[in-house]
């Protein structure tokens, strides 16, 4: 090959190079895999949708550690398409802020430039869930911060898919993106952001915890149900505004617990002002709803709205039911109801009065009229009727004091009316024997000791609910008792179960002595034994409105020995046994605790045992009612 001349080489070197085919770029494309990158503070920016809105409680501790030992845990970064800056991902905003403060304070380069872990960009919702997970693990997020983050994630998911996500699907999507949250919390989080955050922002961001929020939700829902019950008195859409105006007064910075006694008082006042229902009725209904929903009871079946419905009926049609006073007036009252306070009897001099001078219950104003109409703003003087009633109450108090001073130390029998005051007996010497009723406590100290021995855990009953229970029994003409009253005489039991305390294993109050109420109480006690066996609240126990109140489905194949014992015990009450489960005499020996093998924990504790006795009594009584109905039909 002939060698080119110098002129030819010079001409070739002077020829232009190849032309560029693509468009020029201002920045290099971000990497598509994880890698370490050298960054400075000027190249970084925090995540603008960071769920943490309140300063990290460990802020000063983290800052002191970085100042002393440097940045040990490098914050992960990512880069959105088209952006020049790196964005903090999966937590690290607190560390970025600390680095900027330390660089301003010290000027040291180790706080200005460092290697960071780069992660390829995925999506906005991936960024959000990463921050939720990391912040929750490193420093406990507030409830409202978690709730707000979940709501934002839900909105991003729905924007991506174009469909509304169910709570179950939302939990699944969050778990796939690395953030675990219980499905039972999702509804409460959504409720908090929608209904509580606009009213109590300062309190929520001060650290109001989940238990307090759940209690607040229960009270709001109970108030809403009462509001919607009063369809003729208020408009349903007005509840949100009334709730906001009432609860906004409780919004305070630094508040982590609500003063629930004042909250309930204000809520009942709000309901009474808007609906016209008496304050005590609102309080009783509110307590019923909150208590029954906590026990997962059906509100209609357990008559949670009974007092409210009676009040509304009388408000809407005052002539439908004549008003009555409770307690009844002394002149018109008959023998006192069992367990109630003694009432005055009409004396011979009073019996000779003319009929028109006798006060009649139907002529007296109702409690509503006494509170709203009889005493106006301009007239503060008491009416003659009210003055006469107060004089009668004072006379009853004096007579009660005389009876207490002159009565014998022997306790009266249950339901026995008070006798006329007699002469004051001489004090008995310690050696004298007094004819006490069997099982009765002789002194107040003995009464208190017996009451304490029968109380396994506290049971709260508001004065309003107790008074209403006694009033209902008085209206029906049946006796009603309290646990404290029967404790020195009977064998009741008070424990922390979800069922009410058993005032007497045998005695059945008149208001419950009918098939429907008996079936309700039977199902409650059956659930106690079912919960002991581990299948309470499941599909194993089903309601039976025709038989003895309950029926049983087979247990799962993986049921343990304890569950089979409990199932067999309940099935025996129906006369149905499973031959595959224990069915011999040792079953009852193990359950009753009279026979126990080594390491065996199949015996009922005292609370379950006494409720089983009560269950047997109620089923026997229900059988008597069913037999009476069959005989009446035949």
Automatic annotation (TrEMBL):
Feature: compositional bias, Pro residues: 320-330
InterPro entries, A to Z: ICE_PFGI_1_ParB (IPR022304), ParB/Sulfiredoxin_sf (IPR036086)
Disordered: annotated span: 1-31, 317-382, 398-423
NCBIfam families: ICE_PFGI_1_parB
SUPFAM superfamilies: ParB/Sulfiredoxin
Domain of life of the source: Bacteria
Annotated Basic and acidic residues bias: 1-13, 370-382
Biased composition (Polar residues): 348-363
This protein's name: ParB N-terminal domain-containing protein
Signal peptide (from-to): none
């Amino acid at each position: 090959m002939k060698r080119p001349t110098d002129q030819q080489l010079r001409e070739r070197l002077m020829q232009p190079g190849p032309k560029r085919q693509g468009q020029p770029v201002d920045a290099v494309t971000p990497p598509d895999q994880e890698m370490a990158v050298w960054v400075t503070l000027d190249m970084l920016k925090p995540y603008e949708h960071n769920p943490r809105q309140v300063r990290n409680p460990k802020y000063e501790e983290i800052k002191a550690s970085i100042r002393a030992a440097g940045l040990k845990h490098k914050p992960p970064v990512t880069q959105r398409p088209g952006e020049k800056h790196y964005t903090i991902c999966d937590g690290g905003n607190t560390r970025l802020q600390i680095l900027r403060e330390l660089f301003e304070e010290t000027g040291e380069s180790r706080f200005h430039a460092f290697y960071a872990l780069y992660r390829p960009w995925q999506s906005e919702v991936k960024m959000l869930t990463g921050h939720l997970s990391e912040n929750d693990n490193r420093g406990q997020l507030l409830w409202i911060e978690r709730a707000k983050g979940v709501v934002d994630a839900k909105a991003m998911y729905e924007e991506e898919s174009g469909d509304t996500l169910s709570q179950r699907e939302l939990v699944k999507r969050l778990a796939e993106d690395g953030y675990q949250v219980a499905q039972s919390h999702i509804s409460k989080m959504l409720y908090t952001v929608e209904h509580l955050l606009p009213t109590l922002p300062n309190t929520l961001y001060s650290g109001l915890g989940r238990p307090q929020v759940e209690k607040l939700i229960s009270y709001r829902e109970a108030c809403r149900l009462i509001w919607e019950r009063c369809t003729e008195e208020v408009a349903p859409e007005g509840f949100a505004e009334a709730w906001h105006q009432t609860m906004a007064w409780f919004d305070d910075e630094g508040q982590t617990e609500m003063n629930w006694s004042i909250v309930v008082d204000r809520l009942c006042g709000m309901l009474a002002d808007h609906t016209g229902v008496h304050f005590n009725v609102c309080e009783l209904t509110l307590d019923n709803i909150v208590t029954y929903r906590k026990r997962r009871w059906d509100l209609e079946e357990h008559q949670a709205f009974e007092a409210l419905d009676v009040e509304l009926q009388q408000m809407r049609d005052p002539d439908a039911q004549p008003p009555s006073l409770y307690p009844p007036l002394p002149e018109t009252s008959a023998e006192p109801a069992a367990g109630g306070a003694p009432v005055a009897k009409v004396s011979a001099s009073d019996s000779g009065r003319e009929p028109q001078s006798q006060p009649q219950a139907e002529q007296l104003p109702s409690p509503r009229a006494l509170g709203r109409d009889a005493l106006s703003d301009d007239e503060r003087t008491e009416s003659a009727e009210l003055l006469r009633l107060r004089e009668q109450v004072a006379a009853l108090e004096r007579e009660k004091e005389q009876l207490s001073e002159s009565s014998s130390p022997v306790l009266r029998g249950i339901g026995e009316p008070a006798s006329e005051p007699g002469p004051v007996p001489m004090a008995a010497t310690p050696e004298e024997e007094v004819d006490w009723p069997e099982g009765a406590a002789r002194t107040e100290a003995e009464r208190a000791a017996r009451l304490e021995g029968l109380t396994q855990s506290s049971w709260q009953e508001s004065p309003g609910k107790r008074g209403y229970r006694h009033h209902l029994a008085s209206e029906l003409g049946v006796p009603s008792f309290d646990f404290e009253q029967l404790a020195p005489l009977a064998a009741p039991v008070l424990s922390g179960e979800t069922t009410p305390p058993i005032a007497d294993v045998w005695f059945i109050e008149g208001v419950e002595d009918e098939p429907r109420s008996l079936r309700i109480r039977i199902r409650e006690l059956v659930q106690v034994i079912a919960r002991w066996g581990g299948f309470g609240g499941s599909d194993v126990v089903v309601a039976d409105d025709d038989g003895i109140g309950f029926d049983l489905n087979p247990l799962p194949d993986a049921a343990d020995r304890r569950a089979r014992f409990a199932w067999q015990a309940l099935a025996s009450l129906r006369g149905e046994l499973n031959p595959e489960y224990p069915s011999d005499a040792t079953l009852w020996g193990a359950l009753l605790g009279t026979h126990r093998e080594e390491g065996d924990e199949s015996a009922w504790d005292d609370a379950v045992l006494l409720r089983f006795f009560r269950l047997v009594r109620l089923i026997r009584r229900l059988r008597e009612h069913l037999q009476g109905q069959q005989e009446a039909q035949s």
